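Practice record 12: protein with S-adenosylmethionine.
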Amino acid sequence: MTATASTASTASMDVLFELFDGLPRQGPGSNAATRRAWDLLGAVPPRPTVLDIGCGSGMQTLELARLMGDGRIIAMDIHQPYLDILHRRATAERLDGIIETVNCSMDAMTFAPGTFDVIWSEGAIYLIGFEQGLAIGQRLLKPGGYLVVSEITWFTAAPSPELVQFWHDEQIDIRTEEENVQRIDRAGYQCLAHFRLPQEAWWDDFYLLLEQKIAPLPRKYRDDPERLAVVNNQQREIDLYRAYAHQYGYVFYMMQRQVS
Ligand SMILES: C[S@@+](CC[C@H](N)C(=O)[O-])C[C@H]1O[C@@H](n2cnc3c(N)ncnc32)[C@H](O)[C@@H]1O
């Protein structure tokens, strides 16, 4: 998980981008999960207009474009190198007619109200806050439009204190599935479905590769306490998941904006 740009120093952001650059994705997920979430939506209109918030290098954006076949996806992120990779991948697959990359922060979007049929965000809405993400959907979705987010979620009402402390220190507000469904209802959506991301979707395209990138860095940054702390913290995040994957994980929430 990356820290918010507003709370992390330049050195911390540099080392985070060093860790995440070159990975197939920048958070837990899989094409199978993206497909499953898409299939759980009702009738998406033909040639939909889609916004992918915090797309990273766009593994899920490309899968959405393959599923749609036609339409338009605005893939948005604040890290230009990720957008460049996505653009290259989209061009190679001839999906560049569907995918447009936009460098913009999720808290500075100026799209007209009611622009999108679908808003998608895998592992990124936590950066602005779940409820703030729901509010963005209410503003930018057409009535009846769909919001899909994957959000880190407790699977137990009593998570281990060391987990609670770690995520508190990361300034990430984690709730249970029940609490998130209540927040979805209160924000004016129908929660169509939700499902847990399987553990292999944390490991296969993300944590196992991230661990390989982490391995040489403690030595590289042994005289740089700030960067070393970021590297060690990232390894600790992975170690905690290895120990406590039954207590938390990502959950996909599929929602529909109420018509009135
Ligand atoms: C955990 S990654 C998830 C990336 C991608 N959705 C995935 O699942 O692989 C979070 C992404 O949000 C981006 N990001 C961070 N702050 C952002 C902001 N304020 N606005 C838009 N994107 C942001 C990061 O650059 C990163 O690509």
